[in-house]
Structures are given as C-alpha cells and as structure tokens.
Design brief:
about 220 residues, mainly alpha
C-alpha cells in the first residue's frame, strides 16, 4: 500500500487523475505508515523467506513512501531496524536459494535494502563482508530454470528471475568494479529468461508477474 501511494504521489506531479487517487489513499497510507513505524520498534527478528512475508522487501517498498511523502519518522524506523536486522550478516549462504516457491532472493533483497539505508562507503564495507563465496555468488548471477509454468508454486521462479534482475539493477552502481559488468549481464540474462512469461502464458503467472517486470525494467536506481 505504501509503495502504491509513493507511485501515485510521483504520478500526480503530471497527472490530475492520479492526484485524486493519491488524495483518496492518503488517510490509509498515513495510518499504515504510523502502524509500521510502531511495529518496527518492537520487531526483534526479520522474516527472510523469499515470499510475501519477506521483511527486507517490505522495508524497501515502505522506504519509497517515506522518501516521497517526506515521512522522517518512518524513515528513521526503517533505517534503525534494517541495521539491527542485517548489519552484521556475513558471507550470506546463497547456496540455500532458491526455495521451491520463492519469488524473492532473501539475500539480494537484503542487500538492496542496505544499499538504500547506507552511504556509499558504508555499503561497500558491508558488502565486502556480506557477499557470498564466489562459487555461491554464481548462483545469484545465473537465472533459475522453471520446470513447470503451469504449477502455481513453481511459476514463482519466473518472479524470482525478475526480482533478481531488479536487485542487480539497483546494486550494480554500488558494487566493486570487477563485479559490475557481471551484474549488468545478470540483469539482462534474468530479464530474458522470464520477461516473456509476464505478458503471455497461463493466468496463474501473468496476473502477478507484471509488477515484478516493472521493477526489473523501470525502477530507478536508488528507488
């Protein structure tokens, strides 16, 4: 909801109809922002699974609202909790990804969040300690093969490819120089692997993949 409101606020700068939508959604968005800030102050542990419940993904979406709406209380709550949850992670075990129905990489989404709440030098230091071993990093650089796109759970892996592309796009400018061309290639490979499924095929996939395609293709760097 907060990400939707951030998009409506941005669109309303040049679309009068969107301005009306943003005004209609403002009370609910403001309420949820306050509730989320209160919840984060009490949430001791993150949810790391790569599904709807992923805590890092939620904070990335909410941070877009906090910046667009200029909500410093929510932004402070997100930054504090991101550091408490993830600042001390080391050598992320990328070999454990993906799960059979995951559409997010828990580790890569965490990295996107930390890039958003840290300045360049702090993120570079964090990434150096967090980055998986080389053989495991290859797991993130290579698209996942989707065996059965008619299965509602297995089809989630197309979403994983598109969300990984989104992550690589946001992370690439902040990565060490040797990794940057690999990140660019990984973005392209992941988009090629799963973008067609967002515009054709079974409804079980197409009804939700479009949102991940938008992230992979249109989300601005630092967004």
């Amino acid at each position: 909801m907060l990400k939707l409101q951030a998009e409506l606020l941005a669109l309303s700068q040049h679309d009068a109809q969107a301005a009306g939508w943003a005004a209609a959604c403002a009370p609910l968005s403001s309420h949820l922002a306050r509730q989320l800030a209160e919840f984060l102050d009490a949430a001791d542990f993150p949810v790391r699974t790569g599904t709807h419940f992923n805590s890092a993904f939620a904070l990335v979406m909410a941070l877009a609202y906090a910046r667009t709406q200029q909500d410093p209380a929510l932004r402070r709550a997100i930054v504090r909790r991101a550091h408490r949850w993830f600042a001390h992670d080391r050598k992320y075990p990328a070999r454990y990804e993906p799960g059979g129905d995951e559409f997010l990489s828990g580790g890569m989404t965490e990295a996107v969040l930390m890039r958003a709440v840290m300045d360049g030098s702090a993120f570079a230091e964090w990434w150096e300690l967090f980055v998986p071993a080389q053989v495991e990093l290859a797991n993130w650089l290579t698209p996942v093969e989707v065996g059965n796109r008619n299965d509602p759970k297995t089809s989630h892996l197309d979403g994983l490819n598109l969300s990984r592309a989104w992550c690589w796009r946001l992370l690439e400018p902040a990565l060490p120089e040797p990794l940057r061309p690999l990140a660019v290639r990984a973005w392209s490979d992941h988009v090629d692997a799963s973008l067609p499924q967002a515009v054709e095929g079974q409804y079980v996939s197409t009804h939700w993949l479009a949102s991940f395609a938008v992230l992979a293709l249109a989300e601005p760097v630092g967004g």
